Model the fold of this input.
Amino acid sequence: MATTATVTVDERVRALCRVEGFEIVRFAPATLTQAARDAAQAALDEGRLADMAWMTGEWLDRATDPQRFLADARTAILVALPYHGDEAQTGPGVSRGRIARYARGRDYHRVFETKLRRIARTLREEFGAGARATVDYGPLLERPLAAAAGMGWLGKSTMLLVPGFGPWVLLGAIATTLELAPDRPLAKSCGSCTRCVVACPTGALGADGSVLDARLCISYHTIENRGPIPRELRAKFGDWVFGCDECLDSCPVGAANHDAYADFVPPDLEHARPALAGLLTLDEAAFRARFKGRAIMRARRDGLVRNACIALGNVGGPDDLAALISALNDASPLVRGHAAWAVSALANRHGLQPAARAALERCLEREQDSAVREELTLAITELGTRDSGLGSGAPHGNSG
Ligand code: B12
Ligand code: SF4
Ligand code: SF4
Done:
């Protein structure tokens, strides 16, 4: 049973978190269940973590053992900040991409870091306790810990679903040597719902629940993948240029309006739905200037421009062909290769094959990079053999 002194410490810790703006605060014992550890190990062993080089066996060993994150840890303090599930409205005339909602405002890592560090420092100074904070990148699996702390439950999308907010929260954690009274896990589940599994455009979610194959996930490819996007997946990416919210959007939990933390609200349309042709013109310096302080930096310039090429291939209008043809001359072979695919995809949708063929063949004559040559050759071969909706406009309806 908790002593009066312990309750006071608990309340003080919750108050510290609330002062930092964390209205959602839960405590869990600083341990992960064997089932969660086995699930993480299976994801690694079966290749479902794709090529996230930092998620090694060593990383997962530590991430599934809070005692290795902080010696003598007794409690994991889980905090969350909400953001919006609402979609930004776009007007006609410009082909726009989509940035995942979590990345439309300030970089959440920076927002959490400052707050979590202040809380951890107070725990050390006021209670003489050990305390170590992390958000996202630290070796600590945040979702199973948050579920153990009763913040929400693990949905079939693998998202932590929080009553009132659904999947639309971001998580941070502090491990501490303080013994705080744990909150109870929620007795809730997705039941028979499978909306996210059905909604996922690439089939990345396992029907049996809480299993995601990152090799198929648009979020993984647009954010973490530094190389080529598998050709068979590109047409399924729609207009996503950074992250993907399809499984979150389909979720009926917490869909009701809630206040988003102010830092995560996009200040304008370009932060949410950037004009695709504009992204193609960014060089390294312009990319850094535009996305400084935002999570988009993670994709790096070449990755984001690669993604924008694919999105234009999928949703661009006839007027966007010229921008894609210019991208065939980009300094990055990664971009040139994906521009080739996109030229072919867009031309097929709008009946622009002759102009596309001429541009692709010109590039093939002078291209030295073997991977780009292969992309160009395939793009030429595929001209006229894809979707025959000639001149019918963008099937994803985004070119306005
Ligand atoms: C790597 C990573 C990714 C990868 C892989 C995601 C994945 N599902 O495996 C990629 C790049 C694809 C990704 C995408 C996204 N991510 Co991410 N990601 C992470 C990160 C860094 C590690 C997650 C991880 O290790 N995954 C591997 C699996 C094995 O572990 P897990 O999902 O954490 O835990 C699972 C197992 O433990 C298992 N499990 C637990 N107990 C049990 C018991 C049994 C019996 C079984 C069978 C299984 C089981 O279920 C858990 C949930 O799926 C975390 C931050 C962190 N440090 O935890 C953020 C994090 C999970 N991501 C987050 C977000 C916001 C996203 C995106 C929504 C971003 C976007 N819009 O594009 C998407 C959502 C995609 C999705 N459906 O998950 C948030 C999630 C918040 C929330 N409410 O759940 C986190 C927590 C970051 C944060 N600090 O807020 N992400
Ligand atoms: S983020 Fe997108 S691609 Fe990844 S599992 Fe969810 S719906 Fe599928
Ligand atoms: S869409 Fe349905 S199955 Fe998927 S996470 Fe939400 S409630 Fe669970």
Q: What stands out?
A: The chain is about 40% helix and 10% strand. Confidence is low (pLDDT under 50) at residues 387-400.
